[in-house]
Structures are given as structure tokens and as C-alpha cells.
Amino acid sequence: MRYTYLGHSSFLLESDSGIRIVTDPYPQTVFAHPIVDCDVVTVSHHHFDHDDITQVGGSFRVADTPKPLTIGDVRIYGVPSFHDEVMGAKRGDNIIYVFEFDGIRIAHLGDLGHLLTDDQIAAIGKLDLLFIPVGGTYTLDPQKAALVTRQLNAKKTVPMHYGTEGHSFKLKTDKDYYKELEIFGSL
């Protein structure tokens, strides 16, 4: 298994058998990125910076619901959640995607905006790799992201959706998230 960060909340996941998945593709106006070919695109929610499938190449299937999908040796399913802390009243729904392949489990939290419930934690399950939004403003802020990191206790966690040079949104940085992890003793 390999993963490549494409920027913002987008990753390219590649199984050992060659299945390629792109998460939350976004337009070049958000952040410059390469166009990659894939077999599946997951869309955590339908905001312009997470569902621009024109930014992906190849012949692919789109997953934009929690319904399970199997392609080759890859199993994908979604866990319903919200884009904010008030059950979607501000920004709507969000889908957490769980990927199972090559003997590992990965979760991509999309634009999660709240701490997880016990039911969501159980549905996500034990993780090897977690992609978590940490920039605040539109998602978890660094402090809440550190709490969700502890809730899920993945073997490895990779921050996403944070402020970087060239990014069009004003967001907290990955360094802010790492500081919160140190405070909570998660490093």
C-alpha cells in the first residue's frame, strides 16, 4: 500500500494490486496539484473544495454515499457524520470513509466538524492509518483534532486540510495540531 498527499484533503491511495483511489478532489484555485488517474474517487461531501471530479483522470467510479463498495481487493464503506458541531445545521453532512486492503484499515475523515460518538468510533473500528482535518474554521480545529486522534487511536495519523503556503483558505497549520498532540500527550 502506498499513499501520496495531493494537498488539501486529497490523497492518492494505491493497493498492492494496483487499485488507485483519490479522496476529495479539489480545484486548482484552492491549491495547485497534479491530475492523477484512478479507479475510485471518494467524496466526503459536496462542497467545491472536496468534490471536483474534473480534477481526476482515468475511468473511475464515484463514491459519495456511505454505501459499501468493493473494487478488486479494496473494500470501502462510509460512516455518516457532520461537517459542524451542530448536526450539520451550519455546513451539512460529511462521510467518513474507511478503506480496507492489503491487510490494513485506513480512515479519511473528510471535513469532520465534531467529536465522534461511540457508535461512530465502533463503526470506524481499529485503524492502521488516519487522515484527519486539523485546520479549524471549516473543520476540526487543532485541539478537537487532537481529541479525535485520541478517540480513534490509529497506529499512524496524517493531518490534512490545514493552512500551507499557496493555500487559498486561512486555516491553522499542521504545527498547531502537533502542539496540541504534545499537550495531550499523544506524541
Helix and strand arrangement:
Elements: E1 2-7, E2 10-14, E3 20-23, E4 36-37, E5 40-42, E6 56-57, E7 61-63, E8 69-71, E9 74-82, E10 93-101, E11 104-108, H1 118-124, E12 129-133, H2 142-152, E13 156-160, H3 174-184
Helix pairs in contact: 2-3
CATH top-level class = Alpha Beta
Give helix and strand order, one letter per element, not per position: EEEEEEEEEEEHEHEH
Which architecture name does CATH use? 4-Layer Sandwich
The percentage helix is: 10-25%
Q: Total strand count, please?
A: 13
The overall average pLDDT, rounded, is 92
Widest sheet: strand ordering:
8-9-10-11-12-13
- Secondary structure class reads alpha/beta
CATH superfamily: Ribonuclease Z/Hydroxyacylglutathione hydrolase-like
Report the β-strand fraction as a percent range. Answer: 25-35%
User: What Rg do the Cα atoms give?
Assistant: 15 Å
Output the number of helix runs. Answer: 3
Oligomerization category of the chains in this entry: single chain
Distance between the termini: 24 Å
CATH topology: Metallo-beta-lactamase, Chain A
Poorly predicted parts: none
Apparent shape: globular
Largest sheet: 6 strands, mixed
What is the total domain count?
1
